[in-house]
Automatic annotation (TrEMBL):
Its main location: membrane. Residues 328-362 are annotated as: Disordered. The chain crosses the membrane at residues 35-57, 69-91, 111-130, 151-169, 195-222, 243-264, 279-301. The keyword Membrane applies. Belongs to the G-protein coupled receptor 1 family. It is found in: Cell membrane. One of its GO terms (molecular function) is G protein-coupled receptor activity. Keywords: Cell membrane, G-protein coupled receptor, Membrane, Receptor, Transducer, Transmembrane, Transmembrane helix. This is G-protein coupled receptors family 1 profile domain-containing protein. Residues 51-302 form the G-protein coupled receptors family 1 profile domain. It comes from Champsocephalus gunnari. Residues 350-362 have a biased composition (Polar residues).
Length: 362
């Protein structure tokens, strides 16, 4: 027996011993997982689609004159909306147990659209938080996304290009594979482990660790500044700042934690037991679907909690009504356009002390 055949025999023997110790079988609950995943995707699709369409509809009119915070909010909503558009494909894929019915072209395009916005949403959230910190604590510091000039469009385009580049590293190996049933997978022909580990680490660093460090650090500094502001609304303002960080971490930490453990297993296949890996692979699709709740949470946190956004939403809706009806409703209401007829100086002061992203953008 040659040395190569001997090594292959040992590998097969070790694999057999490893699988003998696998006592857990989750195939029996696979149907329940598919039902749960379908319902999660359906909820995120319906609610997230409505929320992000409303956010883009209201904020789109101010895109050229909006400051950096609102400009980032618009890009975040656009990223989330594009991710939501791909969900019907994944809903059907989950329902049919990873069977892909829409051909090779949509396989690659759908995953590319998802991957691009997977990165871009986190990038714009991080820059929005940094921009807001600077606007509250260092007003003289040059803005990342200034209203005048081409700087905001160059930086915005650069972030989208970076997101596209990172997505292509994975998508170049995404293809339709005809096994028992057609499926859409990322499966490099050569050096699979190296590619998977590399893409996983890039995803961990660029999509989670980097943005999370910026978001958490800036929000902690914002909370300190807000505590000393004279016109804050008490504990609600400080609490809301930490909710921004908490929601980002809760959405993405479980996904990246499971992904990290899978990377470790690829590097050293025998570091975890068979039962552990069975649970990891079973839970990966679950934590992946739960991570998409950021598409629902972002519009609420960064838009609907803001009084200025709600006022703009009402005014935008009223502007679409017949003039007679809109005039009657405006006259009967307590809020005039742009937030009412109070003291403008006081309103601006309250806006600067507020922890709402859209209030700063107003």
């Amino acid at each position: 027996m040659s040395a190569q055949e001997h090594n292959a025999t040992l590998d097969l023997y070790n694999d057999t011993l490893w699988f003998i110790h696998c006592t857990i079988n989750l195939d029996s609950v696979g149907d329940y997982r598919r039902i749960a995943l379908f319902l999660i995707y359906l909820f995120i699709f319906m609610v997230g689609l409505l929320e992000n369409v409303l956010v883009i509809w209201v904020n789109w009119r101010r895109r050229h004159s909006a400051n950096g915070v609102l400009f980032c909010i618009l890009n975040v909503s656009l990223s989330d909306l594009m991710m939501i558009v791909t969900m019907p494909f994944f809903m059907m894929e989950v329902t049919m147990d990873k069977v892909w019915l829409w051909g090779r072209f949509l396989c690659k395009v759908t995953y590319l659209v998802y991957a691009v916005n997977f990165y871009s949403s986190s990038f714009f959230l991080a820059l929005m938080t940094a921009e807001r910190y600077l606007s509250l604590t260092r007003p003289s510091f040059p803005a990342f996304f200034p209203v005048l000039g081409r700087r905001r469009w160059v930086l915005c385009g650069g972030l989208w290009v970076l997101s596209l580049f990172l997505a292509l590293l994975e998508n170049v190996h995404v293809d339709l594979l005809e096994w028992d049933e057609p499926g859409c997978y990322m499966l490099p022909e050569h050096n699979f482990t190296e590619w998977f580990v590399s893409v996983g680490f890039l995803c961990l660093v660029f999509q989670f660790l980097g943005p999370a460090a910026v978001i958490i650090t800036c929000n902690v500094l914002i909370a300190r500044a807000v505590r000393t502001a004279p016109d804050v609304q008490g504990r609600r303002d400080v609490w809301l700042v930490h909710v921004y960080s908490l929601v980002f971490v809760l959405c993405w930490l479980p996904y990246h934690f499971v992904m990290f453990l899978m990377i470790v297993d690829d590097i050293d296949p025998f570091i975890f037991s068979c039962n552990t890996m069975e649970v990891l692979y079973f839970s990966f699709s679950v934590v992946h679907s739960l991570s998409l709740f950021h598409c629902v949470a972002n519009p609420i946190l960064y838009n609907f909690l803001s009084k200025s956004f709600r006022d703009n939403l009402v005014n935008t809706v009223l502007s679409q009504l017949p003039r007679d009806g809109a005039a009657n409703q405006l006259g009967a209401g307590t809020n005039a356009p742009n937030g009412g007829g109070g003291d403008p100086g006081k309103q601006r002061k309250l806006s600067n002390a507020s922890t709402s992203q859209s209030d700063v953008a107003s």
